Amino acid sequence: MTLRIGIAGISGRMGQMLTEEVAAAGATLVGGVCRPGDDAKGAKIYEDIAALAAASALVIDFTHASTVIPHAKALAAAKIAWVLGTTGLSAQDEAAIDHAALSIPVLAAPNFSAGVNLMFALAERMAAALPAQAYDAEILEMHHRQKVDAPSGTALGIGLAVAAGRGVALNDVMVSGRHGHTGARKDGEIGFASLRGGQIVGSHTVSFTAANEQISLTHHAFDRRNFATGAMRAALWLAGRPAGRYSMKDVLGI
Ligand code: NAD
Q1: Cβ–Cβ < 8 Å for 94, 129
Q2: Is position 79 annotated as part of the catalytic site?
Q3: Mutation test of ligand 1: which of 21, 62, 83 has the most ligand atoms closer than 8 Å to its C-beta?
């Protein structure tokens, strides 16, 4: 029997691509949920996430941060595996994901591309090797004009990797969107800047700048398909695993 997959956010940009990826992988698309009135291009729409969960073995979820807590509860209650791509998550959302992962397998990723996940791993190594007092870490991201959250989930993921490499908590050192009389940059800050425009799928750069040298890593996503194929790969990897919280590092073996 093929894997029965439901898509939360099925009418969205990611949801529509995911319907194609499910078919390409030979899995069964059971349908999805979306905001009332959205055009789901003929896919079966369920009344709510609980009804979708009851029909699925796994749910791929690219919706809006406001849905994360109810989705965590519904999927944990139904014992359904959860691949979560939604970004803009709060600390309460993260806690709800952790709680769900006690009873179901969950793979949440701010970015499903192989290149970006390699960037997370490399940024952590760079941060561990380059002392925070000498190397200023700054993260720049640019996305399409429809994006509703900033900094991007991916930029935050890079920030978390840098913070992990330095053995600090990101919240203690994060400075986002400098404006006005900010004072001089402090040692150890991790700076974020967000640009918005046009239809840019996602560009991220992390730079470590010292007095005499700079090293940067840049990733450009050219097409959202990259995220959809990554999420589908994650779904196939996650199905049948024991409860727990997994990451793209586990899928990619990095
Ligand atoms: P979109 O606006 O095109 O689609 C959002 C979808 O969610 C729609 O189907 C909408 O109906 C649905 N939705 C919104 N609120 C809902 C609610 N309350 N209940 C049920 N359904 C609801 O957005 P998109 O570009 O497809 O992105 C969706 C999310 O995925 C965003 O958070 C985005 O940042 C994130 N994203 C993550 C990755 C990744 O690799 N992790 C890649 C791209 C986008």
Answers
A1: no
A2: no
A3: 62
Determine the length of the chain: 254
Q: What is the pLDDT of residues 164-191, one digit of tens each?
A: 999 999 999 999 999 999 999 999 999 9
**Is the N-terminal amide bond of 110 cis, ω within 30° of 0?**
no
Q: What is the pLDDT of residues 215-238, one digit of tens each?
A: 999 999 999 999 999 999 999 999
Q: Using CA atoms, how far apart are residues 159 and 12, in angstroms rounded to an integer?
A: 27
pTM reported for the whole predicted model: 0.90
CA separation, residue 42 to residues 15, 31, 38, 62 (Å)? 13, 9, 11, 18
Percent residues over pLDDT 90 in the chain: 99
Show the domains of the chain with their CATH numbers: 4-108+224-252 (3.40.50.720), 114-221 (3.30.360.10)
Neighbours of 38 (CB within 10 A): 15
**Candidates 7, 11, 14: which one to mutate for ligand 1, based on the most atoms within 8 Å of Cβ?**
14
